[in-house]
Specification:
Elements lengths: L1 E2 L11 E2 L18 E2 L26 E2 L12 E7 L8 E6 L4 E5 L9 E2 L12 E3 L8 E3 L19 E7 L2 E5 L5 E5 L3 E4 L15 H6 L57 E3 L13
Antiparallel strand pairs: 1-2, 3-4, 5-6, 5-8, 6-7, 9-14, 10-11, 10-14, 11-12, 12-13, 13-15
Length: 287
């Protein structure tokens, strides 16, 4: 991590990831054929209603088309560069397959320029290789995990995250997810060995409001400070209590602060072996 001298109130305590130690520099980054423009939604859906609050503004960003399907199987690939992606917390790698095609993939922790990997059921379980869960030994850390074979990676994709293979049983693999939940996933689903790069991301201190605004994050205010028409916790004279037994979101649904928010009849309930444990890293719960 890079720290600054406290030359101002904003600089005091500000930290930044040391990108120079990890990323490669080049004039052709990012690769133009794998990028496209993308409009900022400002947290609004197709009808113009705000569905995700506190978003808007920010710097203009170029979208990199990252491959999460990994459908080029049994073809070796070599890493040409490790790059920054403004749309995700982990780093991405530009890889060149042996047949001449280039793609962006999510970079594993420890990957450097010149490293090789392959997507194959016969691959060795080393960092960067991608294979089916049935061929991954128990105790191995994985990321870019599929829920359905061929549907593309869905789980453990943010910076520093990984899941762990716990057991194999009757065509299913038990995987401990980053949330501490243990879940059964069909053994023909694919996963990448290792963990996501940029594990220092969680240690970053923005330091000042301007850095948040550059990222497209708008100011947040408390529900109790609003009017009753704007939030279930709002209204009342002075500092009034929320008036409900359970805390609620702006839409009136219960929040995740130690409360169960999962639907009782969700289709995947039968696949969950152990529910996640609330704690310091979760929305609420024990200290």
């Amino acid at each position: 991590m890079k720290k600054y001298k406290p030359t101002s109130a904003g600089r005091r305590g500000m930290t930044v990831v040391s990108y120079k130690d990890v990323l490669t520099t080049g004039k052709n980054e990012p690769l133009k054929s794998l990028t496209k423009g993308r409009r900022s939604t400002g947290g609004r859906n197709s009808t113009g209603r705000i569905t995700m609050h506190y978003r808007g503004g920010g710097n203009k960003r170029t979208y990199r088309e990252v491959d999460f399907t990994y459908n080029k199987k049994d073809i070796p690939a070599v890493v040409e560069s490790i790059e920054y992606d403004p749309y995700r917390s982990g780093f991405i790698a530009l890889v060149l397959y042996k047949d001449g095609e280039r793609r962006y993939v999510l970079a594993p922790k420890g990957f450097v320029k010149g490293d090789e990997f392959i997507v194959s059921e016969a691959a060795k379980p080393k960092v960067g290789n991608r294979l089916t869960l049935a061929h991954i030994p128990v105790g191995t850390f994985i990321f870019n995990l599929e829920l359905k074979p061929g549907a593309g990676a869905r789980i453990a994709r943010s910076a520093g995250n990984n899941a762990e293979v716990v057991a194999h049983d009757a065509g299913y693999t038990l995987v401990k997810l980053p949330s501490s939940e243990i879940r059964k996933i069909i053994s023909t689903a694919w996963a990448t060995i290792g963990g996501v790069s940029n594990d220092e991301h969680r240690l970053v201190t923005l330091g000042k409001a301007g850095r948040a605004r550059h990222r497209g994050l708008r100011p947040k205010n408390r529900g109790t400070a609003r009017n009753a028409v704007d939030h279930p916790h709002g209204g009342g004279e002075g500092r009034a209590p929320r008036g409900h037994k359970r805390s609620r979101t702006m839409q009136g649904r219960p929040t995740g602060k130690g409360q169960k928010t999962r639907r009782p009849k969700k289709y995947s309930n039968t696949l969950i072996v152990n529910r996640r444990k609330p704690g310091k890293l979760m929305a609420g719960g024990g200290r």
